[in-house]
Amino acid sequence: MEKAEKQISAGGVVVRRTSGGWQVVLIEVRGKSGRIRWTLPKGLVEKGENIAHTAHREVKEETGVDGRIIEKIDSIHYFYAFREGDTLKRYFKIVYFFLMEYTGGDTKDHDTEVLSARWFPVDDAIKMVSFEDEQQILRKAKQILIKRGMWQEKH
Length: 155
Fold this sequence. Notes:
The chain has 3 helices and 7 strands, in the order E-E-E-E-H-E-E-E-H-H. By secondary structure, it is α+β, with helices and mostly antiparallel strands. The protein has a single domain (5-147), classed as Nucleoside Triphosphate Pyrophosphohydrolase. Strands 1, 2, 3, 4, 5, 6 and 7 form a 7-stranded mixed beta sheet that branches. The longest helix has 16 residues, at 132-147.
């Protein structure tokens, strides 16, 4: 078994306050298995790029929206593998997520690798994302908003 190659990615949880409460933008993508999933925007760090810049760039490319970084939320780690020809490539991936406040842009301007990008109430988004580790990132983002006094429940 060959050693797993390390990959570093970064992404964002972009939030905006509406009259109905806080919303977060999710992207809809087709997974390797062909299954369609809702997920957080993220991508690989490019050479010479820091993780905050990667998160900002990937969010803008994948969602069409822009945001101001508030703080780093946390990171997730996982192994994955895929076949390239006759070779099974194994990766150990670390993804750093940043909480971002929406500053502009439109979800219809997402890039072509994304099926769609849409805003959802934070609690709905937590239920919609496909992976438990991303659900945890969204829960932590909500806790940061609460801790900073930014979260108010609908009245």
